[in-house]
Design brief:
8 helices, 51% helix, DNA binding, alpha+beta
Length: 256
C-alpha cells in the first residue's frame, strides 16, 4: 500500500495498526485488503477511515456469527456469577491459593482502543504467570499476570487491565462466536455451579481459619490473665507474710 502515492507511512499511526491484533489473522488480512482496495486519494483522514472499517467489520461479524444459546449453556447472567473484577483480584492477590481461586473465572479485559473508545473482551482465566516487570496493582507491587483465553487465543495481561464494569451482551456474544469459530466447548451451567462451589469452600475455609485464630487468641488472653492473677496473689501473700513477720519482731522487742 505504501508504494502508491495515496498512502504515506505517517497517515496511519502505529497504534492504529496494532489495533488489528484484536482480530484473528484471517480477519485482519481481510480488513487490510479491503482498505487497500479503496480509493484512498479521496479519503482525507485515512486513519479514522481504517478505524471505522474495523468497527463495522466487528459489528457485522457479531451479527453474522451470533450463536444461538443451547440448553445447558451458561447465559450472561450465569457467567456474571463467576466473574472476577479488579477489586476482587486486589483482595485475593496475597493469598497462597491465588491461582486455584482465579483459574476458571471470567474477566472483562481491556484489549485495545479504537478512536478513543476502549475495547474489552470477555475472557476465561487459565491461571497466572510471573512477568519480567513489576507494576503497581492497588497498594502493592507485583509481577503476576493473568493468562486470559479468548477461544484459542491465549495472552497474559497485567491485572490493572481487568475491568470493574459488567460484561456487556455484545462482549458475551463475541465470546460465544469465537468459541464457535474455534470449535471449543463453551461454559455450561454445571461449570458455573462447580466454580461457585469452590468459592463457597474457600470462604468456609477462611471463616474456619479466622475462628481458630480468634479461639487461640482468646485462650492465650485467658492464660495471660490467669498468670497475672496468680502473680498478684503470690505477691500479695508474700507481702502479707513479710508484714506478719515484721509485726512479730516488733512485739518481741517490747517484751520486758
Amino acid at each position: 500500500m505504501y508504494k502508491t502515492e495515496h498512502l504515506k507511512k505517517n497517515d496511519i499511526p502505529q497504534p492504529v495498526w496494532k489495533t488489528l491484533a484484536q482480530f484473528d489473522r484471517t480477519s485482519a488480512l481481510h480488513i487490510v485488503d479491503s482498505f487497500a482496495k479503496k480509493d484512498l486519494s479521496t479519503i482525507y483522514n485515512k486513519s479514522a477511515f481504517l478505524i471505522g472499517m474495523m468497527k463495522r467489520f466487528r459489528q457485522q461479524q457479531s451479527e453474522n456469527q451470533k450463536v444461538h444459546i443451547k440448553p445447558g449453556w451458561a447465559t450472561l447472567k450465569d457467567v456474571m456469577k463467576i466473574r472476577c473484577n479488579r477489586d476482587t483480584l486486589q483482595r485475593w492477590l496475597d493469598q497462597d491459593d491465588f491461582e486455584p481461586l482465579v483459574k476458571g473465572c471470567v474477566v472483562r479485559v481491556l484489549v485495545g482502543e479504537q478512536n478513543k473508545a476502549r475495547t474489552y473482551r470477555m475472557c476465561i482465566v487459565g491461571g497466572f504467570q510471573r512477568g519480567d516487570e513489576r507494576y503497581r496493582f492497588g497498594k502493592i507491587k507485583t509481577t503476576k499476570q493473568l493468562i486470559c483465553k479468548f477461544g484459542n487465543m491465549v495472552r497474559p495481561f497485567k491485572m490493572d487491565y481487568i475491568s470493574n464494569s459488567d460484561i456487556t451482551d455484545e462482549e458475551y456474544n463475541d465470546w460465544l462466536a469465537q468459541m464457535d469459530r474455534c470449535d471449543l466447548d463453551v461454559l455450561t451451567i454445571r461449570d458455573v455451579e462447580h466454580k461457585i462451589k469452590k468459592f463457597r469452600q474457600y470462604a468456609s475455609d477462611k471463616e474456619h481459619e479466622a475462628q481458630s485464630k480468634r479461639k487461640h487468641s482468646r485462650s492465650r488472653s485467658r492464660s495471660r490473665s490467669r498468670n497475672r492473677s496468680r502473680s498478684r496473689s503470690s505477691s500479695s501473700s508474700s507481702s502479707s507474710s513479710s508484714s506478719s513477720a515484721s509485726s512479730g519482731r516488733h512485739r518481741k522487742r517490747r517484751k520486758p
